[in-house]
Design brief:
Shape: rod-shaped
Radius of gyration: 43 Å
Order of helices and strands: HHHEEHH
Strand content: 5-15%
Number of strands: 2
Structural class: mainly alpha
Length: 168
């Protein structure tokens, strides 16, 4: 129904009438546009076939005494429909693209905010984070080893001091 309404719309039929100079023969020049449109509508047939497996299709036929004119008008109606359909799809694609661009920008901004908070959190709790446990344990072990070495050095120096004092 939508396809039929779109193809047989007054706007589309007026385009076809103007494009092919229909009703420009003597005697029909003074016809009202409503009558011209009604005449084309009455001679146009649109069949829509629905398929469960493949795409839905439609066919446009036009009856006229001149087969070449009938072919031109049927092709013209199909072309007008296809052109309008392409414009609608292009507008939808642009709209979708704009929506996705805006969503991407919003998500990027949100991600930057979360990353900033994460950086601040890591700076605030530097050395206290769970993923730093291994590094902290290695540092602690190294510091304990240094402490042990320095305590031993201190004991050795105290021993030498006592030896020197006893010699004095």
């Amino acid at each position: 129904t939508t396809i039929k309404e779109e193809i047989l719309s007054r706007t589309n039929l007026e385009k076809i009438i103007d494009k092919f100079n229909l009703y420009s023969v003597p005697g029909s020049e003074n016809m009202f546009m409503e009558n011209k449109v009604a005449s084309i509508r009455s001679r146009t047939t649109i069949d829509v076939s629905r398929s469960r497996r493949g795409p839905n299709t439609f066919s446009i036929s036009f009856k006229d005494a001149n087969p070449e004119t009938a072919m031109k008008i049927a092709n013209g109606l199909a072309t007008v429909f296809i052109d309008e359909n392409l414009k609608v799809r292009e507008a939808q694609a642009v709209s979708t693209s704009d929506f996705l661009t805006n969503e991407l920008a919003a998500k990027r901004k949100r991600l930057e905010e979360v990353e900033k908070k994460l950086r601040q959190y890591r700076q605030r709790y530097m050395g206290e984070l769970p993923d730093q446990l291994d590094a902290n344990l290695r540092i602690l072990e190294r510091l304990q080893t240094q402490l042990s070495e320095r305590e031993k050095t201190l004991r050795d120096e105290k021993s030498r001091l006592s030896v020197v004092e006893s010699q004095i």
